Amino acid sequence: MKRSRALVTLISQGIQSDTFVHLDDSAKTLLGSLVSGLIALANVGDTTANRFDSVGAAAQKTLRKIFTVMPAADFVQTIPSMLESENLDVCQIMYPRLIILSVLPQVKIGALNLVSERVPKIADHVRQDVTVTVIVLIEITIKLLAKENLLLSTHCLRALKAIASTMVSKEEVALIAALPTIIGAFKNPDLVLLALDVTNPLSYV
User: Fold this and answer.
1) Is residue 1 within 8 Å of residue 51, measured between CB atoms?
2) Which terminus of the chain, N or C, has less C-beta within 10 A?
3) CA angle 36, 55, 88 (to 5 degrees)
4) Per-residue pLDDT tens over the stretch 37-92
């Protein structure tokens, strides 16, 4: 575990204020994979034996550092790949495949939590620039919501609320198209209030 922690710490030390400036598309894809892997490592530390705790803590610290310096536009562009990821090769270097597969759902939940927390804070002019990606994000989130997994659905609706409550021009079209799936969440009493939170902003469109 010392080697794993050292690797995560090395990644953290390499992150500077200009690390994520002017990334090309392939670099942004790799960044998304890195963030996904760190979220998985953080969750491995939370859900397994104590010997993983130090690695999980190091992963959480590195994630915080990444999101402190990552431009908002690049942040948005990394999320779709995290939500669609079914493979975490970075983590498999350090952990058995079965452990990594067990935390894959947590990567999606972690990505949705990031949407809930960060999207409302994005400046309007930046949000306008990433509208196409936000629309893709809405579509992916709706697909996850349709799986009718309570925990995942809860985080999907929270992410959609964050988007809907701060939506910019053109995003409302994707949200309105998603209404049938969102309204379908009303069937579950545990999701009714969250679904209402998503639909309320759309009533003013």
Assistant:
1) yes
2) C
3) 25
4) 777 777 665 444 555 567 778 888 888 888 778 888 888 888 887 887 665 444 44
As to burial, measured by CB atoms within 10 angstroms (0-12 exposed, 13-18 middle, 19+ buried), residue 25 is: exposed
Nearest Cα residue to 83 out of 130, 115, 50, 129 = 115
Distances (CA, A) of 161 to 107, 146, 201: 19, 16, 8
Residue 128 exposed, middle or buried by CB count within 10 Å (0-12, 13-18, 19+): middle
Number of residues that make up the chain: 205
Q: Scan for tokens 């705790």, then name that residue.
A: 53
Sign of the torsion angle spanned by Cα atoms 119, 124, 129, 132: positive
**Ranges of H-type helices in 24-52:** 25-47
pLDDT in the model for residue 57: 80
Write the pLDDT tens digit of every residue in 21-36.
777 777 777 777 788 7
pLDDT tens profile 126-149: 999 999 999 999 999 999 999 989
Euclidean distance between CA atoms 47 and 108, whole angstroms: 16
pLDDT tier, 99 (very low <50, low <70, confident <90, very high otherwise): very low
Helices (H), 48-149: 53-69, 72-84, 89-92, 97-118, 124-129, 131-145
Answer whether 89's CB lies under 8 Å from 30's CB.
Answer: no
Select from 87, 171, 175 the least CA-distant residue to 134: 171
Rounded to an integer, the average pLDDT of 155-166 is 96
